[in-house]
Design a protein that fits this description.
Elements (H helix, E strand, L loop, with lengths): L2 E5 L3 H11 L4 E6 L2 E5 L5 H7 L3 E12 L5 H9 L7 E9 L2 H8 L1 H11 L4 E3 L10 H6 L7 E8 L2 E10 L2 H10 L12 H10 L7 E4 L6 H9 L4 E6 L2 H16 L11 E5 L14 E5 L14 H22 L3 E16 L2 E4 L11 E3 L5 E3 L6 E10 L2
Parallel strand pairs: 5-6, 5-7, 9-10, 9-12, 10-11, 12-13
Antiparallel strand pairs: 1-3, 1-4, 2-3, 4-8, 7-8, 13-14, 13-17, 15-17, 16-17
Length: 391
């Protein structure tokens, strides 16, 4: 059986995360913000626990030319998997042309009518914005167990017809984001979902050591503790108050039973400038680095290009120093996942890019171009960079 994934707001980044965690899976087709995959060791529930960028997963039950799909085909599929007397369903369409999506979305009404004609009570549920249902709505309505979340993935002339089996736990993510005692909105706190994606891109080894040299309030450390079996998770920051914030947030996780009290033994917190980390850590002791680093000063949106370029120069210098400081600490073959920001104001755009910089000596760009994380209206764009220590 084939399976499918539905990605969040950044499909390219989310696909890279999935491929990093499931390197032996075969991505058969892409369909808008979704993908059809073949994976011999598929475990949808575990995937949803592991991934930050995926909002739904499920099983593909049928495939055919999308022009041949009609309401009767979908209705017959639902009848073959009866889950009670009442049929409650949602229907989402990913990929395809606008005309194809419009036609396929209209099949939901045909499914409701076909069910009613057989005497079954049918309810078609939709989201306010569009026909696709959010993971929260699927969970609230129990559509993975008591109903059906139908996902149609159009790729080329083919449509894959799937039923959702697992969805992202929106409440758990929200708790770790907004429920924590210490948040740093003023400095642009790293979203937990993005932190999880970065941790997964780093391929943290079981029993290994991961480090965040700009740990802030501990978002990366929290997600690493949940998503990996690293034996040591190092968090360092130049500001003592940030290290104290991390400690408080980690203790809160234990209090909320997000992770166990024994997990606290995995953390090693250090107050240090990244340039002097070698005074605290032994050579070649780190297997992977996951960090955001500086995003520069807050922007009003009207900064001139010379001002933006000055910000770029300052952050570029910090990254050169960071690469030099971390090089002796990270073992050969170790991986770093970090953020090189880009800035956009009414006067233009500037970005950090050390791709061909001499300061990158000993590190190699991996897995192609940086992956963009950006929301409409934001002045700072995060470019996710994957580097391998090459020498």
């Amino acid at each position: 059986m084939d399976h499918f994934l539905v990605f969040g707001r950044h499909p390219r980044l989310s696909l890279a995360e999935f491929s990093s965690t499931r390197p032996h899976a075969y991505v058969r087709a892409l369909a808008g913000a979704g993908a059809v995959v073949r994976d011999a060791d598929w475990d949808g529930a575990s995937l949803m626990q592991a991934l930050g960028g995926c909002v739904k997963v499920g099983d593909v039950h049928l495939e055919m030319p999308h022009t041949d799909l009609d309401a009767d085909v979908i209705t017959d599929l639902l009848r073959s998997k009866l889950r009670g007397g009442r049929v409650i369903f949602g229907l989402s369409v990913l990929g395809g042309t606008p005309a194809a999506r419009t036609r396929l979305e209209k099949l939901a009404l045909g499914v409701k009518r076909a069910c009613s004609m057989t005497g079954a009570s049918a309810r078609w549920v939709t989201s306010k914005q569009n026909a696709s249902l959010s993971p929260a709505a699927v969970a609230k309505l129990h559509l993975t167990t008591d109903g059906y979340d139908i996902v149609l993935l159009v790729h080329g002339e083919t449509v894959s017809i799937g039923l959702t089996t697992d969805v992202q736990d929106a409440d758990a993510w929200s708790l770790r984001d907004y429920g924590r005692p210490i948040r740093d909105d003023e400095n642009g706190m790293l979203p937990p979902k993005l932190a999880r994606i970065m941790v997964n891109l780093a391929r943290v080894t079981d029993g290994g050591t991961m480090c965040d040299p700009f740990c802030g309030s501990g978002t990366v450390l929290m997600e690493a503790a949940l998503a990996t079996h690293a034996s040591t998770i190092i968090g360092s920051d130049i500001e003592e108050r940030q290290v104290a914030s991390t400690q408080e947030n980690l203790a809160w996780c234990v209090g909320k039973r997000i992770f166990r009290k024994d997990d606290m033994k995995r953390f090693d917190l250090i107050t240090s400038d990244v340039r002097t980390l070698t005074k605290h850590l032994k050579p070649n002791c780190v297997d992977s680095v996951v960090t955001e680093g500086s995003l520069g000063p807050l922007l009003s949106g009207h900064e001139t290009l010379p001002t933006l370029q000055k910000n770029v120069e300052g952050i570029t210098t910090l990254w050169r120093d960071t690469f030099a400081a971390l090089h002796p600490l990270v073992r050969k073959g170790g991986r770093m996942v970090c953020v090189w920001p880009a800035f956009k104001t009414s006067h233009g755009m500037a970005r950090i890019d050390l791709t061909d910089d001499p300061g990158l000596e000993g590190w190699r760009m991996a897995d192609g171009d940086p992956l963009l994380y950006h929301r409409p209206g934001q002045r700072v764009m995060r470019r996710i960079v994957i580097l391998d220590r090459s020498a």
